[in-house]
Amino acid sequence: MSHPKGASAPPTPAKSKMPKAVSKEIKALKTRLSAVETQIAELERRLEEIALALADPDLYRDGERARTIAQQRKDAEQKVAWLMKEWEDLSLSLASVEKP
Fold it and tell me: Smallest Cα–Cα separation from 35: which of 75, 90, 72?
């Protein structure tokens, strides 16, 4: 079927909307993935600070402070583990959406 000179075939609804929806989903996944990566990096830096604090023998002169910092480490480690799982799930979702 030919179209008048300079005219293109009208887009089919499924073809014109599907890529836009997929593109929007990809963008949302990438944005969330980036946010999770930032949170992981921040928590890993915090864990390094905590490790340095826990390595200081003077810390243990104040038992309450030592327990507080140890709890902060535990909380940060749990949050990193959760974020790593979230990162993995988002990465898998992104890979499945980006497949041709």
Answer: 90
